[in-house]
Amino acid sequence: MPRPLEALIHVDALLHNLQCARTHAPDARVWAVVKANAYGHGIERVFEGLRGADGFALLDIAEAQRLRQLDWRGPILLLEGVFEPRDLEWCSRLGLWHVVHCDEQIDWLAQHKTEWPHRVFLKMNTGMNRLGFTPAAFRSAWARLSALTQVDEVSLITHFSDADAPSGIDQQAQAFLSTCADLSGERSLCNSAALLRHAQDPAIRGDWVRPGVMLYGASPDYPEHDAAHWKLEPAMTLHSELIAVQHLQAGDTVGYGSLFTADRPMRLGVVACGYADGYPRHAPSGTPVLIDGVRVPLIGRVSMDMITVDLSAAPEAQVGSEATLWGRGPQINGQATLLPIDEVAHHCGTVGYELMCAVSQRVPVEVLRPHHG
């Protein structure tokens, strides 16, 4: 039989989370952000669950091609725009909308020969200081773009650096809204955190919202709020099995570097999952795992292909018992069990985004579609 490790993609969760985004911004259109191969879930795998969005936003032209091959005919937005002049040919061919964030991209557009003018989103740098024109330079960039015959419509976009934090978005939002006050064009301000925390203000909501990680069931402001607080459901489960059980005596050590020493007799379970599968090597002892739906702590160092867990809380666990690394666990007494990816990530000093993006190619993936009665 194949190795028991598997990732499951839950289409019902994607449908639910997309509807959650719409609930928070009922009069805005929704970009489903599918960059990084849909945050590691796979564009082809999530398409069924997210095709109800008004458009898809991503980075790579190759990923945009994959969406067109799925017969998506709606808008596709390149969030970083084009990287060289000839990318504009692909935008013309595939009907891609694209962000413009620097003078060079305007220069390339001015020299581009096309029969169909392009829809562009002009980006303002309101404090993230990665991409975009400063407020002082923004209006002249807007005027220059608007004058080009190669440009059909100019929309306006920014990205918040602290929408998930107490410092909030007020300063950045004010810079954007005041600079754009009398400019024509649709607005897009909200990522997942801004959508969930601040989109009750119509000015912040704008015309387009850009949910990303929330579509996949992770909370953008964990640990202040978990996914359940936002009524989000995990779109990915990573699960495996126990492939061995060891009986330790006090003083026995576990794994490379002997980082864990048993202080009593105990049962140890070995799970078929390691850092070559995308599980973080730096996960410390105490990181939670579900064994047959029961929480147990990881102990010792994560290996390439295996992790080890303390089975004290799961005395009936044996070889073949189900191990949930994150996502939906088995039911216990008719109640669903769950291990949020954000919680695992928090133990590892990282974010759920990184874990879902890091699942490796060797992990088999199954798409679970909703049951229709």
Number of helices: 12
For the record, the count of structural domains works out to: 2
What is the radius of gyration computed over CA atoms, rounded to a whole number of angstroms?
A: 23 Å
Shape by Cα distribution: elongated
What is the makeup of the main sheet? 8 strands, parallel, barrel
Strand content: 25-35%
Notes on the structure:
The protein has 373 residues and is an alpha/beta fold. The chain folds into 2 domains: 11-216, TIM Barrel (Alpha-Beta Barrel); 236-368, Beta Barrel (Lyase, Ornithine Decarboxylase, Chain A, domain 1), CATH 2.40.37.10. It is built from 12 helices and 19 strands. The strands form 3 sheets. Strands 2-3-4-5-6-7-8-9 form an 8-stranded parallel barrel, surrounded by 6 helices. Helix 8 (170-180) links the parallel strand 7 (151-158) and strand 8 (187-190). Helix 7 (135-146) runs parallel beside helix 8 (170-180) and helix 11 (341-347) packs across helix 12 (352-358). The longest helix has 14 residues, at 11-24. The two termini are 32 Å apart. The model has no long low-confidence stretch (mean pLDDT 97).
Please sum up the structure shown:
With 373 residues, the protein is an alpha/beta fold. The protein is 27% helix and 27% strand.
List the helices and strands and how they pair.
Elements lengths: L5 E5 H14 L4 E5 L1 H5 L3 H8 L4 E4 L2 H9 L6 E3 L8 H8 L2 E4 L2 H9 L6 E7 L10 H12 L4 E8 L11 H11 L6 E4 L1 H7 L3 H4 L2 E2 L26 E13 L4 E2 L5 E2 L4 E6 L16 E4 L2 E6 L7 E4 L11 E11 L2 E5 L1 H7 L4 H7 L6 E4 L5
Parallel strand pairs: 1-19, 2-3, 2-9, 3-4, 4-5, 5-6, 6-7, 7-8, 8-9
Antiparallel strand pairs: 1-10, 10-13, 10-17, 11-12, 13-16, 14-15, 14-17, 15-16, 17-18
